[in-house]
Amino acid sequence: MKNTLSAIALLSFFIMAGCGTTGGTASVGALGGAAAGGGVYEYRLHKAKQRIESEHKAGKMDDKEYNARKDEIERLQLLK
Question: What's the whole-number mean pLDDT along residues 30-41?
Answer without folding.
Answer: 67
